[in-house]
């Protein structure tokens, strides 16, 4: 398998699926790079605001001339590139109509012809744009096309004669749709803005130069950067030593770099080029005014002079549109509706920074080394590691490959492939898993055979993952136990047919069990008729076992309310449950007789949990927890219920009702709790009148809460039978 992967990365074998995965990862990698705003390149956006203020687009050349004058004269931009072509003459001024009238219908009207001739200069909108363009750093954009030649091309950067017989592969067209002759003559130069997407329709590459006829013409990004940098010339750099040709140079006939001679600098700028003189576009951000890569200003604000000068002064400006109706949006790896004008901005940034994302000549070697290391390490290690360490190793290795690939891309500008290495890691892991499956199954079957008759199935599944970690021996551990019971189950069973009762209890037990096991990973101990017993903290240890238990109890009450609505709709008896929770030291392990054993918990803390479930109905609450549980799960809001001494225990314990997470309790509930706790303190202080007044107010506020009536009844009893000065406020229960 490793050998197959080496063949793929070396180019000897091409697997389309792997190539598509590499494209996916390359797109993902580009989306992960966070953009940094580059103020050197500004997009003057013909946006919806501009169309609303100035008028529908395309605008007449008089407005375009004003825009050019504002940019070059008022703001002093370093260069302005138009992502727009002006291929047709502008007749919107109406001068042609006036001229025809002067020559025909109104030729005999005295002075009319002369007046019309005098208006020519101000109504010749193309002429106004020509004047605005003259001697200014403005680049006009144009399209390449097949079988069409319209407008005038700018001068090429070089032509075939310059190549001295060398072959220079380039994207070639025999036609173009360019600007009006006099507009192009007045502009500094022109640039091609044609976008050529990949076969899947996504734009990932753009040419720096294209060939039309015998000339090599720059794209808008290269032409605009050249004007901004005041480049004297751009020429190809050839490698003359055939033995030292790189892969890119061989693909380009010996060329992989363009030299741009800038200003008075002796050392030219080097611009690497890929196959067919194209480069990978490094898309920065999601594009558009909120994309985070380049500042955007509205063309309307430029025309009105509302933009601060420092935003545009000495900047490279690209004039384009993001208005949805103007159809200049491209599908790219980072956005399916990416502004076309920002494609050129990204390439200009790469030129200014001298940083291009390229596939280096050593890429095949690096990728082959990755494959060999990954395949070798995994083949040796996975055979001796357990499933979990094997998974972690494979994940760590995949993460390392992705991390190295991302680092190479962001820091070294190297475009490397990683899909084959990741596929190899996954394949070796799966094969090792399949190979070990037969041995693992046999071992797990032995575990299931040993523990299956003792332990609930959900525990066996956990223990089977790492059998050495678990045993059935008894031990003492801090745990939280839960007891759940249905209120009035005898009455419920009498009101249902056997079939209905079976469905009733099955739905109830299923919902409670799912809440215990799935939501907070409790251990389902046993069913005792309609009662459920569960605990948290064993066999898998949780330090927050009390929190999990309280959260589960609240969830179970919510599930019971939903079930109750369903049962009532069916005409069945209502469902109400009581839940008791207690935390403390318990004995846990495999207990029972030689005939039947079970993994369960025992101890005083367990007994108290059972008692708490039983007395929930006394206080009219759905959940009662001991003080140890409350202390271990302080993130919940509680209502203190009482100090109780349950049967079998001498020491009293405080019991509480959990209401919700403390952060979720509203102010009204907090106020009611404060009043209740004040009333409870008054009862314990034997201030009967004060307590009764507060309880009456609480009962009027929440008449459905039986707790308040319970304490009012107790006050009546205490008045008739005073507890005495030595009363400790404890309620004693003599029954279970």
UniProtKB/TrEMBL annotation:
Residues 480-613 form the Guanylate cyclase domain. Keywords: Membrane, Transmembrane, Transmembrane helix. The keyword Transport does not apply. The chain crosses the membrane at residues 392-409, 415-439. SUPFAM superfamilies: Nucleotide cyclase (SSF55073). PANTHER family: ADENYLATE CYCLASE, TERMINAL-DIFFERENTIATION SPECIFIC, ADENYLATE CYCLASE, TERMINAL-DIFFERENTIATION SPECIFIC-RELATED. This is CHASE2 domain-containing protein.
